[in-house]
Fold this protein.
Amino acid sequence: MNTASTAQFVNIGERTNVTGSAAFKKLIMAGDYAKAVEVARQQVENGAQIVDVNMDEGLLDAELAMTTFLKLIAAEPDIARVPVMIDSSKWSVIEAGLKCVSGKPIVNSISMKEGEEAFLHHARKCRAYGAAVVVMAFDEVGQADTKDRKVAICERAYKLLVADGFAPEDIIFDPNIFAVATGIDEHRRYAIDFIEATAEIKKRCPHCHISGGVSNLSFSFRGNEPVRRAMHSVFLYHAIQAGMDMGIVNAGQLDVYDAIDPTLREACEDVIWDRREDATDRLIALAEGYKGKDAAAEKAAEEWRGWHVVKRLEHALVKGIDAYVIDDTEEARQQFARPIEVIEGPLMDGMNVVGDLFGSGKMFLPQVVKSARVMKKAVAHLLPYIEAEKVAGTRSKGRIIMATVKGDVHDIGKNIVGVVLQCNGYEVIDLGVMVPWMSILAAANENDADMIGLSGLITPSLDEMVTVAAEMQRTNMTMPLLIGGATTSKVHTALRIAPAYGGPVVHVLDASRAVGVASTLLSDTQRDDFVAKTAAEYDAVRKAREGKGQNELATLEEARANAFVADFALKPDAPLRPGIHAFADWPLEDLRGYIDWTPFFRAWELAGNYPAILDDPVVGESARGLWNDAQTMLDTIIAEKWLTAKGVAALWPCRADGDDVLVQTEEGEVRLSFLRQQIRKREGRANMCLTDFISPGGDWIGGFAVTAGHGIEAHLARFKADHDDYRDILLKALADRLAEAFAERLHLHVRTNLWGYAEGEQLTNEALIKEQYRGIRPAPGYPACPDHSQKPILFDMLKAGEATGITLTESYAMVPTAAVSGFYFGHPEASYFGVARIGRDQLEDYSARRGVDLEVAERWLRPNLD
């Protein structure tokens, strides 16, 4: 399945469906909900981004089964992180599910089969529960089978819903995927009708989504998985381009479009597009040869070395092979009249291939970064010859200034975006990290830049981005401003940054979007429409925020009255070894066993969970290559002691004082002020604050700071000198993983030795990753305590600078960047939560408790304010 749009396609897992999974049905019928929950967990681990739950079985109490199961999965953090689709043909079951599901659910489904009145009645109930809806292409006449019927029903439903106040983005149409290749002539156009209807519905119904049950398509080939996989992949390849953006499909059972056997792929195309009278017969005949067969084709590894040098350079670029690039570049230089022609010719041709493959979803980020390494080494070899001729280099597609804003030191994401842009012919001037606004603007002017790209990871960076935008406006700049980074969002960009600057402002979600955005902004024909469309989208976001009431807030007094009531009879005993404990050189080999590898792959924009990602049919090959390179580098890091892991942990007596914790340190009493949830909760749900887990009558709290970043700079400098972005990013990503592993390992040491409340704990690394232990370690700047300004207080208590060498920037980012810090709470009922939006009353209260001006507190907590 390959297309530029696949990155936005949402997989809906349906194994928690008694009508679609015999195994799940058997578990539910037997009342074995524990194993049924594991089915949901496996779906999420295998890449499902929504979990579809259906309990429609005649012998079941469907309402009881639905509510029981939903409550169980809501208590599992690794399942609850994805939305739930409540699936039933009975409205009573849907409503029962809506009453107990957390987050924003999706109802599957409603339709007009009982008329408009019943349809709107159910839609209003869904809206009241805050749910999105799947609307089936089904009316009083019946299910839509032709393109015209699908479009007409969906457009009618859309107009009814929108006129009634339903948000268009919460409408998901299912225009019905039916089986093809059945031998019945009336079925031959079913795939065409769905694809064409999808495109037309997207045009007529702005902001809606399109979904469908993909497995229905290949019903005729039950039992022949290779053919079914191929049919699904070919169908999705075209349907996604037409606008289908979600579907019930097993992402682990899709083939890469270009990797499907060409004969089988053509036969599937013939059936899906009804291109031949005998298409069905031909696919049936072909299908017999694919039962139990897997595609495998490998070329001899070094065969390409006999090709012409121009083809060798292109191959090296596409495959990311740098072993021969200097020799091949020199050979090419001797064959061309001028060295610049090698860049303008074979090297740019090769990088254009890389850019096209990445843009169409046929190449993944680790491969692109390897390609960039090959390109940079080739260009570095040619530069002295070009300088000797005093020939100006080629004009790039555009010149982009990139910087991590002042106060922030994180740059992996920025570096990746820069590499991708360079691979596509853009000149990137990277100013590095901690860059003040005046340096950014000066560089843009001095270099005649076409646009500026800002990056940031921590929430204070958001304010700094607003400052940059405002200064660009003040100095009458007009160039586009690109916004990116983990803490940024389209909503924040629309609400805070775009209003500060009159020029184009665009939020770029990830590296895969960067090239498309840059090329459009520099296009004479596409720029104006794109800028106008983006501005309109951001304006719509602002208007939606103004017109759409946010979740109602309780007063601070009401929220405190609804605090979580912990059972302090369960609080852990006093620590076995209280006080501060420093660790100057924790063995890296020990930390290796505690690494959570899934975020490592996500840093490279490879979607999937470890270890399943290594065998993923789409990204598996790229993931395996990256994994092998990571293990090789990790071996070297440990053997040659590239990095040093330093940490500190401490345990102090304390007591809760309202929403504060009073901590007794060696230096005296320290007050830690925390925030409380204020969004009004339904009955039975508490408004949480971290202090709820600390006894007012006396308790214990801990803190920690760890880093695995000492020693990294010398190696990064070496990679930079060698034009090796790939190993630069790889080392940074591994250092981050080792720091997180250190946090995990040190917490284990605290639980079992220093505090000792879990002396007998025996958990696998997988169980540790899933946080199946007692206690939590919330970090300043994260959802439960979102104020980064708590870090200096924690660092002073820990004497962290002295023990670990970690320093804090003015915006509270940690240096080295491969660092983690936070608090330890030991109560068995302690859990993670998000403070989310708070009211003015809590802001003023927090300002008073922290002893700072209201404006300062407002700056600290801006992401949590209206």
